[in-house]
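Deliverable D5.2: sample structural annotation.
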Amino acid sequence: MRWRRWTLALIVLLSPVLAAKGYDVGGRIVYEAKGPIGAFKGENTAVSGALTWDPEQQTASGRVCVDLTAWDSGEPLRDKHTRTMFETDVDPEACFELEGVRPGAAADEIVLVGRLSMHGVTLPLEIPGKLVQKANGRLYFAGYFETRITDWGMKRPSMMGFKVRDRVKVWVYGEGVPQ
């Protein structure tokens, strides 16, 4: 009988730790594209959203958005072309709806599964990467995926009559702060 009381007390004490938790999300997105003169990168730190993560059940859900007007490649004209490509005057953000997670190819990997909406198009997207939870309760995610500009109904930017390649590499770095 005593062990039942102790077990119940332990469950009550640990339930906030084991239960799903909400997180405010920020981060950084980095792209790499190739053009006629070589490769170039840009980054965006205007990332915000919220998610729920349950480490016991390995489930997650939430929404994270990126302000598409905030790309910085170190070259203002390139950034202007990027905003034009995204048509940020009509659709200024891209949002990822996180629907779940699954194990990745390696033991320490996880795959974020969801849908990305951008430029009026919504497509399924999986982002493999690593998720770490620190002792302070914060979550850190680093992942990578590739996509095509034309999959989103966008026109590839051009320089001197030569178009940027269709395939773009994207790195995702996120931080979840407990709510």
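Annotation notes: DSSP finds two helices and eleven strands in the chain. Residues 1-18 have pLDDT under 50 and may be disordered.
The annotation will be released with the project's public dataset once the embargo ends.
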